[in-house]
Prior knowledge:
Number of strands: 8
Shape: globular
Strand content: 5-15%
Distance between the termini: 36 Å
Helix content: 40-55%
Order of helices and strands: HEHEHEHEHEHHEHEHEHHHH
Largest sheet: 8 strands, parallel, barrel
Number of helices: 13
Radius of gyration: 18 Å
Number of domains: 1
CATH superfamily: Aldolase class I
Strand order of the largest sheet: 1-2-3-4-5-6-7-8
Amino acid sequence: MNEVLEKFRGTGVAIVTPFNDDFSIDYNAIKKLVEYVIDGGVDYIVVQGTTGESSTLTQDEKIKSRRAFIDANKERVPLVVGIGSNDTGSLINYIKSSDLKGFSAVLSVTPYYNKPTQEGLFKHYSLLAQSSSLPLILYNVPSRTSCNLEPETVIRLAQNNKNIIGIKEAKGDMQQMNFLIKNRPSNFLIISGDDETAPSSIINGADGVISVAAGCIPKLYNKIVDSALNHNEFETQELLSSIKPFLKNLFVEGNPAGLKSALSIQKLCKNKLRLPLLPVSTNLHEKIEKFIIKNS
């Protein structure tokens, strides 16, 4: 596996965008969050993905917070930036005109709402790959986009575009994941985007995960990923079983609501989300708190 691909093996973390009480970006919390996940052993950080509430950030906020993450990271781990749109033309123009120095790859979600055909998705990503100065990681999350990037289309994209280096597959469908693992080119990364099924996917041959849970329990989740990469199936499943109820609680009222609940308990950022998202219910917050206190 070449040097670029090796950067994205293991545990990637989808990091939140922290907010102050007035919902402005909390730049001090960015520093704390970056220190916390790097100390926790993550291999790389994904900025402004779904977990980063990118859909409610202004363009100016995106530019300033990207710089803040780069400055806080101090080149210690690779950074990936989430950039996606359901307008191919505007997305290409945006990537061409953006200063992405400091990032190692772009994570780009499938176009949402439009419901394109597979051929439309192929052309969208092919043009994007040709236009991006950074390697591209596909991002398939049909639960949010109402659009599934079929595994056959993924393989076709991988075979026809050298600048497309992998996929974050977040459908949580083991059959689809296993097809990708079995049929991918040798220089193409398969990255799970589903915390619960990621360890099994890795044991079956996936390269790692872009994790939400690693944002608040990096050491524990990273230990599970390392165990899976070492094909220690019994230990992996044992460790995963110990956090399954917590994983459910992280997502039951939406992401990043559960994650920000956990991070606020750890005093890493405030429990603030921008509408239309809201903090989790009091009952769920208490469940998350019990786990965090027990495992801190």
